[in-house]
């Protein structure tokens, strides 16, 4: 199963089109090549190392809450977001 997870952007490197995101305290560098603009503090949907699109904080919170209730977040974080 493939999932896109919402994660908070904590740093952006426009020169390399990458950003550092955080989910559950786990930080990962992802590509931002698919987005026109991105800033720290925003939330993005991340799939296989790419930011697919921006989402609101409310949408990110609701999605993460649903995924936690289903037991999916723990699996992703324990796997160090390797499949994200």
Describe the structure.
24% of the residues lie in helices and 38% in strands. With 84 residues, the chain is an alpha+beta fold. The protein has one domain (5-78): Roll (SH3 type barrels), CATH 2.30.30.140. It has a 5-stranded antiparallel beta sheet, covered by helices on one side. The longest helix is centred in the last third of the chain and has 13 residues, at 57-69. The protein is globular.
Compile the SSE list and pairings.
Blueprint: E1 5-13, E2 18-23, E3 26-31, E4 43-47, E5 50-55, H1 57-69, H2 72-78
Antiparallel strand pairs: 1-2, 1-4, 2-3, 4-5
Rg for CA atoms: 12 Å
SSE order, as H and E? EEEEEHH
Q: Share of helix among residues? A: 10-25%
**Average pLDDT level:** 87
Based on the coordinates given, report the CATH architecture. Roll
Side by side, the strands of the main sheet go 3-2-1-4-5
Text of the CATH class: Mainly Beta
The share of residues in extended strands comes to 35-45%
Enumerate the spans where pLDDT stays under 50 for 5 or more consecutive residues: 78-84
Strand pairing plus helix content: what structural class? alpha+beta
When the domains are counted, the total is 1
Our measurement of the CA-to-CA distance between the termini, rounded to an integer number of angstroms, reads 11 Å
Annotation, overall tally of beta strands: 5
Number of helices: 2
- Summarize the main sheet: 5 strands, antiparallel
Enter the CATH topology name. SH3 type barrels
The global form is: globular
